[in-house]
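User: I'm putting together notes for a lab meeting next week and I want to include a structural view of one of the chains we've been expressing. I don't have a solved structure, so I'd like a prediction I can at least talk through. The sequence is below, exactly as it appears in our construct file.
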Amino acid sequence: MMPRLTRTLLRLTLYLFWLPLLLVWAHTAAATRTQPTAVTDIHIINLSNTPVSSVDPFLLADRTGVAHLFWSEDVDGRVVTGGTTAGNTIMYARWDGVSWSQPNDILLSPVSETALYTPSAWQPEGIMDDYGTIHLIWLGDYPDKLYYSYAPADQALNAQAWASPIMLAEDATGTQYVIDIEYLPATDTLHVVYGRGHWEEQYAGNDPRAITHIYSSDGGQSWSEPVDIAFTPDPQRGYSNVRLLAVPEEWLFVSWTEWDQSGNGQAVWVVRSLDNGRTWDAPVKLAQRAEGEYERDWTKLAWLGGDHLLATWEGGYRAYRHFMYSEDAGQTWSEPLDTFYWLIGENGFVEFTRDGADTLHLFIAQRIREGTVGRLGDLGIWHSTWQGGRAWSDTQLVGGPNGMVNPRAIIVSGNYLVVAWYDNVVGEILALTGVLKDVPHLPPMPWRERETAVATAALDLPLSADPQPADPQPALPETAVSTPLFLDETANADVTVALASPVWLGVLPSALFLALFLFIRQYQQAHRVTTCRATAKQSEDY
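Assistant: Thanks for the context. Below is the predicted structure for the 542-residue chain, given as structure tokens.
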């Protein structure tokens, strides 16, 4: 019978032999998955670089090859020692394909006569039209008001080029990322959606919270009356993380999170309009939180072409990212798929953008799930490309590990990647630039010329009176000029996440234990032979 020590060593050796083989298999499986487009020439810069809080970055790409970055800064606020606060000033910087401009403060929320403090100006969202105009919205004041302004893209760095802000709504909910804006070139129409209904009104029973749509068909000069497209009468529930997707066929899709008093998302929804916002279908619930699960939140939609759409949301038992597909323009949806089963983390929306070859890219802030075999990687911006159908490439970590919240990503000139995020610990806005390898570069394109009389496709919806500024644009305060800070130049490498260790690193421990096992077994056999001989000799002595 085999001695106990020998059996134990044999089992241990078998375990340690098969485990590295499993790691090698996982490494090979990951390596055989299609790799995303490589990102090279990476640079990371701290653009805000101020002692006060800087939050809510937002990026726009234009056809001339410029990236426009906006964020909210708490000018003259407290020094950040941990955590962040909503800002009171909209900041701006631009990247021309080579370098970043110095940041400049461009917009404030209008100050009412009774205001005792500078109102907030945060959660900026914007869109670029075909005529080279940036249309910007943001939240400000309390209860939260929705403001709008615009400026020529090539003059956006100049605060005087921005139109005096007008108030589009005075009853915005004010929860996180509750406003969005889109543009449909075919009809030259601006569309805005926002969460409406202040909590005091909700609890008083006067007005339930709602998702509301307005539009402008004359370049932002006038806006329609608000139309509620979804609402909740439950005073314990509300809406956040509202996103708007415009599809060239004049389709609009709005997604949002419904939360309760736990603060976590309980359901994610989507509603569509197939006629440029004239009418809206009934909302569709994509997913509902089940008992014992974490949440449902952070829905983001992408158009895949034709009638095909993708919806991504975060949740489940932990912060997993799920994918759902529609092949009938959002009427029905597939079961959720845990596509990137090795990633985890609640750090904002998924970002989608297309390159010069019309390839759809995905960027997401997550980390490798604990216990995932064959993969290593910390929190950072992960990159994948769509392969068609429901297939996605493997993920790669771009720019190395970085603490980040809700990054924004765009592609400029076909092959330049720009990503911006805020670090919620130090309260700074960081920006990454890089080059997509082997992707065609697109030359600058001129803006369309707007005719004297604005030609639009009328929606036949009621328009409100021309909005007037709530108050003249206040003078911007004198602020200390922030100096962009370039980070470690090691970020300039083509960074790829390490997968499992090489084969020899996996096999070496097994070889050593196998050698040890054979040595001990040989020693035991030799010991038994010596013992038998000694016993035989002892018998002869008798």
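A couple of points you could mention at the meeting. Helices lie at 4-32, 199-204, 503-541. The chain has a mean pLDDT of 83.

User: Perfect, that's what I needed.
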